[in-house]
């Protein structure tokens, strides 16, 4: 299980890409995801375990939320392949999300399909309109993962 209260950055594998690293540094310094908006749109930080390493990774994603569930849109800017973090969700679906200053642990990722995916795709495009352009750039259907609270057994 990923613990959303973990804040010691040494426990995470640091991102290789400069812009992601800068976003996470700004968020960590401010204590809120509000410090790293993209195109004046809110982001969240998803904490997940690496598919191979099992070590924690943090990924800033556009904020798409409805009723306590978050969408993780695997757009990669319309690239023909999924972002690397998709492999992590498939291998280790238990995640945590930082939204503003709030930390949500106990979420599980699953792929949205059919009418549910279409409903969440519309929400995602409303939250970040460039997603529609990204879909036009690629032949793959951009996956939408739902990050939902785990229901007690």
UniProtKB/TrEMBL annotation:
<dbReference type="InterPro" id="IPR012349">
    <property type="entry name" value="Split_barrel_FMN-bd"/>
</dbReference>
<dbReference type="GO" id="GO:0005886">
    <property type="term" value="C:plasma membrane"/>
</dbReference>
<protein>
    <submittedName>
        <fullName>Deazaflavin-dependent oxidoreductase (Nitroreductase family)</fullName>
    </submittedName>
</protein>
<dbReference type="GO" id="GO:0016491">
    <property type="term" value="F:oxidoreductase activity"/>
</dbReference>
<dbReference type="GO" id="GO:0070967">
    <property type="term" value="F:coenzyme F420 binding"/>
</dbReference>
<dbReference type="InterPro" id="IPR004378">
    <property type="entry name" value="F420H2_quin_Rdtase"/>
</dbReference>
<dbReference type="Pfam" id="PF04075">
    <property type="entry name" value="F420H2_quin_red"/>
</dbReference>
<comment type="similarity">
    <text>Belongs to the F420H(2)-dependent quinone reductase family.</text>
</comment>
């Amino acid at each position: 299980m990923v613990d959303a209260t973990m804040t010691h950055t040494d426990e995470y594998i640091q991102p290789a890409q400069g812009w992601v690293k800068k976003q996470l540094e700004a968020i960590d310094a401010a204590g809120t995801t509000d410090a790293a908006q993209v195109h004046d749109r809110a982001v969240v930080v998803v904490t997940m375990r690496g598919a191979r390493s099992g070590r924690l990774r943090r990924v800033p994603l556009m904020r798409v939320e409805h009723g306590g569930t978050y969408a993780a849109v695997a757009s990669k800017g319309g690239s023909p392949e999924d972002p690397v973090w998709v492999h992590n969700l498939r291998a280790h679906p238990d995640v945590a999300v930082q939204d503003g200053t709030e930390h949500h642990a106990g979420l599980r990722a699953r792929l949205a399909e059919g009418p549910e995916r279409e409903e969440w795709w519309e929400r995602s495009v409303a939250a970040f309109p460039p997603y529609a352009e990204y879909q036009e750039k690629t032949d793959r259907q951009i996956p939408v993962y739902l990050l939902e609270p785990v229901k007690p057994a």
